[in-house]
Amino acid sequence: MTSSGGRVNRGPAAASENRQAILDSARRLFTERGYHVPLSAIAKDAGVGQGVLYRHFPTRLDLAFTVFEENFAQLEAIAADPGADAFGKLWERTIQLTVESAAFVEMAVDARRTMPDYTGGTRLQTLIQDTLPRAQAAGLIDARFTADDVLLAHRMIYGVIATAVDPAEVGPAVARARFLLSRPGA
């Protein structure tokens, strides 16, 4: 029996490869086009049909959670460092992730609105609460800042990113916001 030369459906044998292709495409397209990129674009980019995408990830949130869980894993690893500079590293990486992929924040906002038991915001707040006191005790961060202040600053930086008309504005505006928020005694 000869093959028709077309793409061969490998069925379940390709499941793990398909899943990884979907995750890789989703990570890239969420970064490039935002959280609301059409799922059909992700499936096409991954080289799979939409049915395959939905078999692996029944909802946009399921896909986003899987993609962005890696981000939380990075933040949790940074926060696990017992050093006084863990907060600074956590804050910098949080900002980098937000600049690189505002979709991470968009996903969290969507999850908070649609899933009453979503804990992403609590997870980030816990990481900040665990690291901020050490930085403050070492004199690295103004002692008046609270975890809620840090989360507010993050929302402000996200606002700068989300409302920038020209992508070239983002870097300087985020740098300015960082400067304003980091001034001791401000």
From TrEMBL:
Keywords: DNA-binding, Transcription, Transcription regulation. Coiled coil: none annotated. Gene3D superfamilies: Tetracycline Repressor, domain 2. GO terms for molecular function: DNA-binding transcription factor activity; transcription cis-regulatory region binding. Residues 38-57 bind DNA. Residues 16-75 form the HTH tetR-type domain. Signal peptide: none annotated. This is TetR family transcriptional regulator. It comes from Paractinoplanes tereljensis.
